[in-house]
From TrEMBL:
Residues 702-783 form the MrpA C-terminal/MbhE domain. This is Multicomponent Na+:H+ antiporter subunit A. It comes from Devosia subaequoris. Residues 786-806 are annotated as: Disordered. It is a multi-pass membrane protein. Residues 132-417 form the NADH:quinone oxidoreductase/Mrp antiporter transmembrane domain. The keyword Ion transport applies.
Amino acid sequence: MGSSFEAGIGLAAVAPFVAAILAPYIQRFAGAFAGWILAIIPASIFIYLLGFADTIIHGETVSSVIEWIPAYGINLSFLVDGLSLIFALTISGVGTLIILYAGGYLAGHHHQGRFLGYMLAFMGAMLGLVLADSLLALFLFWELTSVTSFLLIGFDHSRQAARRGAIQALVITNIGGMFLLAGAILVYQLAGTWEMSAVREMGEVLRGNELYLLVLICFLGAAFTKSAQFPLHFWLPNAMEAPTPVSAFLHSATMVQAGVYLLARLTPSLGGTDVWTSTLVIFGGITLIWGSLGALKQTDLKQILAQTTIASLGLLVLLIGLGSDYAISAMVVYFVAHAFYKAGLFMVAGAIDHEAGTREITALGGLAEKMPVTFIGAALASLSMIGLPLTIGYFAKEEMYLGLMSGEWTAILVMIVLVAGNAMLAGVALLVMIRPFLGEAVGTPKKPHEAPIAMLAGPILLGAGGIIAGILPDWLGHDVLVPGASAILGRAVKSHLTLALDFTSLLLWLSALTWLLGVLVYRQADTIRTVLRRFDKALGWTADTVFDIVMFSLIRFSGAVTRFLHHGQLEFYLVIVFAALAAALFGPMLVWGGLDWLEPTAELGDWSQRLIMPALAPYEWGVLALAVFGLIAVLIAQSRLVAILSLGVQGTAVALIFLLFGAPDLAFTQLMVEILSVVILTFVMTRLRLDQRDHRPFEDWARDGTLAIVCGLGVSLLLMLVLNGTLDTRLSDFFTATSVPIAHGHNIVNVILVDYRGFDTLGEIAVVMGAGMAVLALLRRQQRRVSTSPEPAKPKRVRKPRKAAS
C-alpha cells in the first residue's frame, strides 16, 4: 500500500472539519440538497477506510506519523488496526446516513447549515479519537467531542432545558477529560512514550508499577464519564434535548462509545488484573440493569432509547471487564449490532415525532398503515435488538452467554445479570416496535404520513445491514470479529459463528429464556412503569438532583469567594500582594536554609564583614541620595500633590541608576513610566482635592510600614545571597551567542523582549492597552454624564399686566 495512501489517514479526521466550515455556505446555495452534498464527505471517508480492510484482515496494521512538536518528540500519529477500523467505519458509515437524515429533518430551518457544520465537526472529532495513536492526540480529539456535543445538545439555545443539558454534558465529560490527561501523563512517565501502539507492549511494566492503581483510576474516570457508567450516567438522558439526528449519532457511534473504545484499547496494557475485572464487571452490570429499568419507566421514545443506550454501554463495559476471548468477541459484535439498531431506532423516533407530532408511546398507535416504510425500519432494528436468529444481535448475545459456561458462582451471577438485562432490552424493543405502529389508530397532533426519503434511508439500510450481517456469519466472524477482538486482546482470536441451532445446547435455551422474559416484560410494561415511578417518587431524589445541588452550591461558593477576594478595597489588595511577596521571599529561604549565610563562620567571620561596599563615584552617590530623598519626601508629604511629585522624583532617580549602570533602554522605559504615572495620577486626582493630606490611622501606618520593611529586607537578603553565590551564566551566554545569528539583533535586551519573550511582551502590551481603554471609557462616560446633565432651570420672567388706558 502506497505511503501517500497511508498518509491520508490524518486527512480522514481533518476532512470533516473542513466540510464543517463550508457547510453553512453550501446550505445557503444548495438549500434542500445540502444534506446530500455534505454526505459525500463521510461517504468518501468510509470508502477510503474500507480500502484498509484487506490489510487489516490479514493481521497487519497501518500507521501514519506527522511531526507535531518535534523538539519534545510529540507527533500527531495515527494507527489503523482491527479495533480502530471497525469504529471508524461505523462512525463514517452511520455518519453518512445521519447527515442525509439531518438534511431532511431540519429542512427549512434557518440554522440548518450551522447544524450540519456542528455534526460534521462532531464526526471529525470522533474519527480523530479512534484513529489517533498518540495519547496527546487522543486527548485533543477527546475534548473536541465534548465541545462539539455541547454545541449540538444546546443547538436550540432558546430552551432552558437544552442549555442545561448541554452544560451538564460538558461539565461531566470535561471532568473525564482531565482524568484522561492525567492518565496519559502518568503513562508517559512510566513508559517513556506517548504512542499507544508502543504502550500496549509494556503491559507488564505498567501493571507491575506501584502507580498502576492511580493510572487505572484516571483512565476509568475518563471512560466512565464519557460512556455514562453508573453513577455518572445521568447526563446522557438530558442530552436528548438535542435534535434527533444528534441523538441518533451520539448514542450509536460517537461520543458515548469513546469510553468503551478507550477501555478496549487499554486492555492489553492495563487489563487482566483483579481490580480491572471486578471494577468493570460490577459497574458495567449495575449500569446494564439500571439503564434497562430506566427505559421501562419512560414513555417518550427518545428517553426510552437513551436509557437503553446506558444499558448497552454497561453491557459493553462488562464484557471488556470479563476479558475472555468469547467476551471480547461478543463486545465487538455487539458494538456493531448496537450501532446499527440504535441509530435506526432513533431515526424512527425522529420520523414519528416529525410526521405525527409526538413521541409519547401512550399517545401513538396504528402508524403502520400511514408510515409503512418507517415501520419496516423499526421492525428490522428491533429484531436485532431482541437478538433473534438471522440478525447480528443474535450472535452478540450468543457469544456473551458462551463465555460464561464455566459453572463457577461468579459466572452464574454474571449470567443472571446478562439474561435479566437482555430480557428487559428485548421487552423495550417490543414496546418500540409494537406500541406506535400496531393496534388501533389514535389521534395525533399532526396527521401522520410517511417521512421523506432522506429520513427513511437510514432506518432501512441500517436495519437491513443488521439482517445481512446476521445471515453471513462467516463474513461477520472473519472480517469483523477476528480483526477487532485480536486488536483488543493482542493475540489471534478464532471465530466460531454459525447459523446451526443445537436444540440440546444450554446456550439456545438461555436465549429462549431471554426472549420469553422479554415478552413477559412487554406484557407487564405498564405495571412495571407504575412501580418504578412510585419508587422514584418515594426516593425523592436522583443523581440529576444531586448534580443540580452541587452546581448550585459551587456557584454560591464561587460568589462568596469572589465577594471575599474582590471586595473593591484597593488598600486591602495591596496589603495581600505585599504580604504574599514577603512570604515568597522568606519562605524558601527558611525552608531550604538560605538564611544560613547570615551565621558567622571561622573562615568568613560575621555577615557584616562579608558585605563589600561598592566604590561609587560622587555623582553616583548623589543619585542614590536623590532616590532616598524622593522616598522620604513621599512619606512626609503634607498634601496629595506633593506626594505625587515626590514619587516622580524617586522614580526618576531609579531611571538615572539604570542609565549610570549601562542600561539606557531600561532607563528610558522607567522614565516614560514615571512621566505617565505622574501625569495620569495628577489627571485623576483633579477630581479630588490635591491640597489635602490623607489621614492614616496609626494601625494602618504600622501595618504598611512593617510590610514595607519586611519586603525590603527580603529583597536585600535575596540579592546578597545571589551575589555571594556562583553566577550561572548559561542563559546569558545563550542569549549572547544566539542574539545576532537567530534573532538578527545586537541589543540583547530588545531581542529578549521581542523574540525570546515575544508572547510575554505581547501579553503585557495587551494588558496596558486594555487598562488604557478602560480608563478612556470611564472618562468618556463621565464626560457624557456631565454634558447630558440637565441645566438648572432659569426663573421665568413674569410680565406685569399693563394698566388699562384711562
